[in-house]
Structures are given as C-alpha cells and as structure tokens.
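Async update (no meeting this week)

Hi team, since we skipped the sync, here's where things stand on the single-chain job. The sequence we agreed to prioritize is pasted below, unchanged from the tracker. I ran it this morning and attached the output directly underneath so nobody has to dig for it. Comments welcome in thread, and please keep replies under the output.
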Amino acid sequence: MVVVNDVTEQQQQQQKLTAIHHAGSGLVDLTNEEVFEMSVEDRIQLLKENIRHYMQHVLNYDYVEIRLLDQKSGTLAPLLSSEIDKAAAERALYAEMKDNGVTGFVAATGESYLCENTDDDPLYLPSFKNAQSSLTVPLLFHDQVIGTFDVESPERQAFNESDRQFLELFARDVAMAIHTLELLVVQKATAAQESVEAIHGAVAMPVDHILNAAVFVLERYIGHEPVVIERLQKILRNARDIKQVIQKVGQTMTPSEALPEGVQVPLRPRLVDKRVLVVDADDSVRNDAHALLARYGCVVETAETGDEAVYLLRNAVENDAYDVVIADIRLPDMGGHEMLLKLKQLEQPVPLILMTGFGYDPGHALVKARQEGLDQQAVLYKPFRLDQLLDTVELVIAGADENPDS
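Output:
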C-alpha cells in the first residue's frame, strides 16, 4: 500500500517563510566599516531600497506604502511608497480610527486590516487608480506600534490569511531594522554631543583666561598706540569667536530631533544667545556655568575676581554686551554689595544675580545690595539646582527687558 500526499503548497509556504526570514535579516546588514562610512541618509535610503527589492522579488507586491508614527503628535509620516499616487502618498494621516483611512485605523488599534473590495469598504481611502484590494499591518516593536505597512493590488480579493501572516512577519523585521537605524542615529548624535561638550569644556576656560588678560592690558594701555589697542580688541573678538564656532558646530552635529527624549534639552527661548558673565574664584563653579548654561544656548564668559569682571564689562562693545552677571557674594577682592555698586557706575548697568551659601553673609552684603536695588529674586543659595539657576536667570533677564532703566 502506498500513501501519496501532495506537499507542494506546504513546501512553497516553507520556502517563502525562509525567503522572508533571509530578506528581513538583510535589511540593514552592515559591517562596522560600512556603518562608519555611510551617512544617516545613506542608511535610510539603503533600507528603502532593500524593502522595495524584497517586496517585489520575495512577496511579489508592487504597490507599497510605509508610514512611521510620531508617538507625540500621532502623525503618520511617509517613509516609503512604491507605485502609489503622489497625492495619496503625501496626504496627512493620523493614528485615529475614523477619517484617516485603513492606515489610521491600523495605527490606532495595532491590528491588521484586510480590505477585499475597496468599493465596499467604509475605511478605505484611494491610493492609486483602479485599486481593488489592500492589506495593511502594523509595524510593531516590543508590541508598540511604530508605523504601518500597506500593500495594495488592482485585483479584488488579491490577499488572503496567508498573505497577512507573511506580511506581519516581514513587518516585524522592518520595524526592527527601523529601530536599529534609530539607534545608530541616536548613538551618532549622542557621541557627537559628548565630543562637542568635551571640546567646549576644554577650550572655554583657557579662552576666558585670554579674554581676562586682554582686557587687563587694555585697561592699562589707554591713551597709547591705537594699533596696539586695535590688535587687543581683535584678540578679544577672535577668542570669543572660538567658543561661538564650537557651539554652532555642536548644534549642527547634534540636532535635537536626533537625540533620544531623555537626552534632549528642553527649550528655553529666553536664554538663547543671552550673554552671561559668571564671577567666582572657584574653578568648578565657572566650569559648571559653561557646561550648564551653554547647553541652553547662553554665551558664557567667566572671571575670577570683581576687577576682572569690571574690566570685561567696561570693554564690552555692543555685540559683546552682557545680559546678566552672576557673582559670588564673597570674591577675592570685593563683596557682592560692592560688585553691585560697580555695576551701577557703568553707562549701561547690567542686572546682577548674587550667589551665596545658606546663612553665609557676615558682611550683610545681601541686605545692603537689596537696599541698593538688587532684585529680591536675584539670589541663588548654594548648592542650587539647575532649574533654580535657569529660572533665576530668565526672571532677571525678563525684568531687565521690561524695565531697561530700572
């Protein structure tokens, strides 16, 4: 007795599963050398080309659209489209169950959707002329929807349950590949940010020493050769330009959208491009001022003594004028009250913030400074939190902007 079974369909299914597995593995299969040499745009383009290739040659689909979900806004942004009408590919869609087509429904529910006849389906939105059926599955990573994967056909009932299973498998590989690319982008941006901050930290203090030395000579050189004064002023400009260039390069190399949410710096528009002079004899305080305030867009310069600060203030031209001065209450050569009096003698007084340890004010400098007009909120008690520093600087700058003559 001989039993004969036709296993052709099973074998074809298994071969297709194997082909899908190999295709998914090869989506972003890059060597370390290739990763190093390729830009982010190159990697994304490679992923698109690989998806398009495998969809046509392994799954035999020509009409394809992939969108990525923005978790905050719910927007479904186009990543790839093949043979889809331009207007359809560019239309705005959101992860909502109503009025956003099958794509919005799948993104909102996380469930696949098979449309056997586009004419009778209330959710379907036309993607190309004569489209008759579609199959849409979610892009899932760790069970979270990160986008949608849609294939369409000019034939009715072109897709079945087997096609859904195949596409869901391939969609998981696509989601993994997209996540891998995002990790590479984040890794590159984070590494670049750390490098820029390290360079800025190493350069900032030496540049400040150059600035202080240059203004010291300027103070002592008044009435002498104009050429020498011009050269000293050029040194000041060039020294300041060094820090500005580093900061701008850092912003280019580490755009905020490339950084993970936990690393992104919250926007503080009032602080951007504000010039802050920090006066403290403690190196760590001056270093921290550079690292923290510059991260929020401030242009920071530092001085160790009150005299150095006054020299910098007196020699600041219009573009280099300071918006706020943060000074320790007890400097090597003067106290906080005296610092305030020095600032008031300038042609354009600069708002002052005083720093002091809790309960440490033997000369009653704070009381005297407040009697001379120091803002009640312009005091930082060490050790203070970053948000307290930022809030105080914003308040003082805002007060100066509203009352320039106060």
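Quick observations from my side:
The chain has two domains: 8-186, 265-402.
The beta strands are 63-69, 76-82, 113-115, 133-141, 144-153, 275-279, 299-303, 324-328, 352-357, 379-382.
Reply here if anything looks off.
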